Amino acid sequence: MEFLSSLMEIIDKLKLKFFARVEKQQEILEQLIMLKKIHKYLSGEVVSVNKRIMLLEALISDQLIENNQIKTGEYDSSIGTIHATLGKSRLFANVNAANKEKLFDYLKSIDADSLIKTKTDVHPGTLSSLVSKLLEEGKAIPEFINFYEKQNILTYVK
């Protein structure tokens, strides 16, 4: 938490500096270069943080499901009283490039060729919705369509 507070202080100071009126070309250029460096650094950190979030969500989800629970215990922590609950799971589907033609043929065979976004693609969200619908109807999913379900974890701080 100390790191987060320090980072927020730095960002606040940068806002004051970067959003102040700048007139000299050198100052503009310095700020531009500094912001690009900060952006590059933070972008890399966001990727790393997102991977860690996914791992921790999977761990909590697995524990809850394994213990037949929908909610964790409530815990006092340095950021407040915390707990998490299982949210609605979400299905994700995709097809690799080698199987695009098979997908198009399949969509035509089930009168769903309107889902083809362009002549060469189907939006992943649209494909995911179709697979969800087919599963709900008890229909088989062709082997060339890859899909998985991700359990959503809702976190709370009081």
Notable traits:
alpha+beta; three-stranded antiparallel sheet; two-stranded antiparallel sheet; 52% helix
Description:
This protein is an alpha+beta fold. The protein folds into two domains: about 1-70, no CATH class; about 90-155, no CATH class. The chain is about 50% helix and about 20% strand. The protein is built from four helices and seven strands. Strands 1-2-7 form a three-stranded antiparallel β-sheet. The protein has a two-stranded antiparallel sheet with strand order 3-6. It has a two-stranded antiparallel sheet with strand order 4-5. The longest helix has about 40 residues, at about 25-65. The protein is flat, with a radius of gyration of 23 Å. The relative contact order is 0.12.
Strand content: 15-25%
Query: Could you spell the SSE succession in H and E letters?
Result: HHEEEHEEHEE
Biggest sheet, spatial arrangement of strands: 1-2-7
Number of H- or I-type helical stretches: 4
User: Overall 3D geometry?
Assistant: flat
Indicate the structural class. Answer: alpha+beta
Question: How many structurally independent domains?
Answer: 2
Helix content: 40-55%
Would you tell me the overall average pLDDT?
Answer: 86
Rg over CA atoms, rounded to whole Å, is 23 Å
Number of strands: 7
For the largest beta-sheet, the strand count, sense and barrel status come to: 3 strands, antiparallel
Stretches where pLDDT is under 50 for at least 5 consecutive residues are none
N-to-C terminal Cα separation, in Å? Answer: 16 Å
